[in-house]
Design a protein that fits this description.
Blueprint lengths: L2 H10 L6 H20 L4 H13 L4 H8 L6 H13 L3 H17 L3 H18 L2 H17 L3 H15 L7 H20 L3 H18 L2 H17 L3 H17 L3 H17 L3 H18 L2 H17 L3 H17 L3 H18 L2 H18 L2 H84 L2 H16 L3 H22 L3 E3 H18 L4 E7 L9 E3 L4 H12 L6 E9 L4 E8 L4 H10 L8 H12 L8 E8 L5 E11 L2
Helix pairs in contact: 3-5, 5-6, 6-7, 6-8, 7-8, 8-9, 8-10, 9-10, 9-20, 10-11, 10-12, 11-12, 12-13, 12-14, 13-14, 14-15, 14-16, 15-16, 16-17, 16-18, 17-18, 18-19, 20-26, 21-22, 21-23, 22-23
């Protein structure tokens, strides 16, 4: 048992000490004082203090994570406060002074506790630290609430809560302080006997404690809700909440919490007339409370033991405990407990038939009850609570209005963005469409140009002149039959060329018929020396296979003028159509001319060089044609040689897509 606890305990019980006990008390006090004075601060703690003051953490958690094991030791906290003051670290001062204040509060030395918490608040203001300001204000509120100074307590808790709620993203410790404020305001509703409102407030504080994982906060709020239910007469439900609070206190190993819960459970048992069970809890609980040294709890337990003994008709023992509780309550200014003690003493003397003393005690109890629950107090608290709730709702409405305005602004911004985006998309679509149309027109123009070029290549003046000149020779030579025959073929060829020039594609059968006519006309000039043959493989249907119009004539013309015109002897051209695979047909044109190398040499030696543009135009047309298919066309030109590398002619292979 620590010295301060025993000291206050013996002071309060002096009237009941005999001479031997008093001598023991003096000896014990002397030894305790000697021991306390000899206690010194360890070197390790001095090093920790120096390190913390150098680091200067600005949060409660930053300090408490290091000092929590020493925060209940007044020697260490006084040393830390002294060093923080010397080295001008006001946040450290505020922390240490608040811990010292809590220690004095827990032994019910409320004036000293108030003095220390006020100094802690001054240090927090000097440091301009909101977290420690809120913490100090709440500590002052708790001290005044414990001593039933309701108006002052509410002022401090209200200020703490309003200050904490100015922070948008509060720290964990600031959230704990908000929880303390909410719990304290709930206790004020409890004092006003507004039990349902108080329970709602405690449940709000409980939800906050659950969110933080604060088991101490949960234990306190379960205890408070139990008190509300007890006052409402719901004893079994109150007992459930007290036991839940006790479970949390056991979990966090809080001696003080256990003592408070057990006293409340015993109080329920007394109301349920389970007097022996109540005393079984209260008597060992008194020893535990005396170890803690909290005079308010010791006073409450003494009063409850006196109450239970009174109901068991053990009046002498009952009076002894009630008087002890009363004297403690008076010494430490605990008006609620003074009123309870006077009430039970009045009832005790009524049981004993001493009505004069019973009346006096009753009148004193009423006087204290009136002091606690004065109309001014009640009106002041009600007004402040209504003001707080109104301001809170007003702030919420203003916040919602700002949020609504912000949302409208965002909506307008999004609407404008959407309109601009839609206009942009429309403009982009229009530009893309223009570009697409330009590309299409360019392609159409290119196709038209290719068709015109193709027509010019098919109907070039040399071919027309030479063809007509050949037919004229038949007429001159009086070969009327041949002249008419070839004139018919020539007119039919011209008609087919003109018809095909307006079409993108024609059937393979039409193309083969056109080149047959072309070769017949050209063969006149070669004195019918050209052996032109065509072979189409069986699976191919000439009438269903589609190819670009007039694509074979340029390759045949090239074979005639560059391959066969300079060749002596037999002249052959063979055209073969085959199915390469499901996606392509293959058209090969093979001649037995002089070959490309010899043709180039002959061409260079000529004065008048004939430039063939028909093949280049055809390649462009084939490329354009294959855009509508999955695959593209290919043209191969193969030089043919014998085993001695002598040129045997040229082979042109066209790979034309059908899909």
């Amino acid at each position: 048992m620590k010295f301060p606890s025993l000291f206050y305990y013996f002071i309060c019980r002096l009237p009941y000490l005999n001479k031997g006990n008093f001598f023991f008390f003096l000896v014990f006090t002397t030894l305790s004082l000697s021991k306390a004075n000899s206690q010194v601060v360890s070197e390790e703690f001095k090093r920790i203090t120096d390190s913390l003051i150098k680091a200067r953490p600005a949060t409660y958690e930053g300090l408490d994570s290091v000092l929590n094991t020493k925060r209940t030791d007044t020697i260490y906290m006084r040393y830390f406060n002294k060093e923080a003051t010397i080295k001008q670290y006001p946040i450290g001062q505020s922390y240490a002074l608040n811990q010292l204040g809590r220690k004095y509060r827990d032994i019910s030395n409320y004036p000293k506790a108030v003095e220390l918490h006020e100094k802690a608040l001054e240090a927090a203001l000097e440091a301009n630290n909101l977290e420690f300001r809120v913490y100090s204000l709440n500590m002052l509120g708790v001290v005044y609430r414990r001593s039933d100074a309701i108006k002052i307590a509410l002022d401090y808790h209200q200020e703490a809560l309003e200050l904490a709620e100015t922070v948008n993203n509060p720290s964990k410790d600031l959230k704990k302080s908000i929880n303390v404020s909410l719990n304290s305001i709930g206790n004020l509703y409890l004092i006003l006997k507004q039990y349902d409102i108080a329970i709602a407030q405690f449940k709000k504080a409980m939800a906050s404690a659950k969110e933080l994982g604060n088991k101490l906060g949960l234990a306190i709020n379960y205890q408070n809700i139990g008190e509300c239910l007890e006052y409402k007469g719901e004893l079994e439900e109150a007992l459930h909440y007290y036991r839940t609070s006790l479970d949390y206190n056991n979990e966090i190993d809080s001696d003080k919490g256990r003592v408070i819960c057990k006293n409340s459970i015993a109080q329920i048992y007394i109301k349920q007339n389970k007097l022996t069970q109540a005393l079984d809890i209260l008597e060992p609980n008194l020893l535990a409370a005396e170890t803690l040294g909290d005079m308010s709890i010791i006073a409450a337990i003494n009063i409850n033991i006196g109450w239970a003994l009174m109901e068991l008709k053990q009046y002498a023992e009952s009076e002894k405990y009630l008087v002890t509780g009363l004297e403690m309550s008076k010494k430490h200014h605990l008006p609620s407990y003074i009123a309870h003690a006077y009430n039970y003493l009045s009832k005790l003397h009524t049981y004993k038939g001493d009505y004069q003393n019973a009346l006096e005690y009753y009148q004193m109890a009423e006087a204290f009850n009136e002091e606690i629950n004065s109309e001014v107090n009640r009106r002041y608290i009600n007004d402040l609570i209504i003001k707080y709730e109104t301001e809170k709702k007003t702030n919420q409405i203003e916040a919602l209005a700002r949020e609504n305005e912000f949302m409208n602004l965002r909506l307008r911004k999004k609407t404008n963005t959407l309109i601009i985006g839609a206009l942009g998309m429309a403009l982009l679509t229009f530009i893309l469409y223009i570009l697409y149309r330009q590309k299409e027109l360019k392609n159409e123009k290119q196709i038209l140009t290719l068709e015109q070029s193709m027509l010019r290549s098919q109907m070039n003046p040399h071919f027309l002149f030479n063809s007509l000149n050949s037919i004229k020779l038949y007429i001159i030579n009086n070969e009327k039959k041949n002249a008419v025959h070839y004139l018919n073929k020539f007119s039919k060829l011209v008609r087919k060329i003109l018809e095909a020039s307006s079409l993108k594609e024609i059937s393979l059968a039409d193309e083969l018929e056109t080149i047959e006519l072309y070769m017949n006309i050209e063969n006149i000039r070669f004195s019918h020396e050209i052996n032109f043959t065509v072979r189409v493989d069986e699976p191919i249907d000439e009438h269903t296979v589609k190819i670009p119009s007039l694509i074979l004539q340029p390759f045949l013309e090239n074979a005639l003028w560059h391959g066969l015109s300079s060749k002596e002897g037999e002249k052959k051209i063979h055209l073969h159509v085959s199915r390469e695979n499901e996606k392509f047909i293959q058209i090969s044109i093979t001649d037995n001319g002089v070959g490309r190398e010899a043709s180039e040499r002959i061409k260079e030696s000529k004065i008048l060089k004939r430039k063939s543009i028909g093949i280049d135009i055809t390649k462009e047309r084939l490329a354009n044609f294959s855009k509508d298919f999955e695959n593209s066309f290919q043209v191969e030109i193969i030089d043919l040689y014998d085993s001695n590398k002598v040129a045997l002619g040229t082979k042109v292979v066209l790979h034309i897509p059908t899909h």
